[in-house]
Amino acid sequence: MRVSDILRVKGGTLYTISPQEPLAKAVDTMAQFDIGSLAVMDHGDLVGMLTFREVLHTIAKNGGSVGNSTVRSVMDDHPMSCTPETELDQVRPLMLEKHTRYMPVMDNKMLMGVISFYDVAKAVVDAQNFENKMLKAYIRDWPEEEAPQAESAQKQP
């Protein structure tokens, strides 16, 4: 399975913000749409990712307030990314190793979407459920073999 499969199922909605925006506006947007990340875009280019992790660190550092921070001052300006053709088996260990919950999907310099750890986990579970159903169907349709005991019973004098 590839990242493009997740994007196809997830849909094309992408939430972005400018690096010059106040962090408070980003928090409002994240709360309004119940999302954990925003792609930070500047003149059509991805320049960073803002996730609830950076927001929480800022709030903790500022005594419970976002203060006058801008998105640029708290965003991750070097987010790990993947391509639509990246295999899910490559993405999972990267996300686990780096504790990455949100990963931009790039096709050259074009942002195609953002996948979350939840999206990856859901895709894995869905694939396993499908495989389990197929295996169960295969076992139910298993052809019956002739019992070897019938042959041995016929050969006895």
Please name the defining characteristics of this protein.
18% strand, three-stranded mixed sheet, 157 residues, two-stranded antiparallel ribbon, 48% helix, alpha+beta, CBS-domain
Structural description of this entry:
The chain has helices spanning 3-10, 23-33, 52-61, 71-74, 88-98, 117-140, 148-155; strands at residues 16-17, 37-42, 45-51, 102-107, 110-116. The protein is α+β, with helices and mostly antiparallel strands. The chain has a single domain (3-140), classed as Roll (CBS-domain). A three-stranded mixed sheet has the order 1-2-3. Helix 5 (88-98) crosses helix 6. The longest helix has 24 residues, at 117-140. The chain is elongated, with a radius of gyration of 25 Å. The chain starts with a helix and ends with a helix. The model has no long low-confidence stretch (mean pLDDT 89).
Structural class: alpha+beta
Shape: elongated
Termini separation: 60 Å
Radius of gyration, CA atoms, in whole angstroms? 25 Å
What is the count of distinct domains? 1
Q: Could you give the count of β-strands?
A: 5
Number of helices: 7
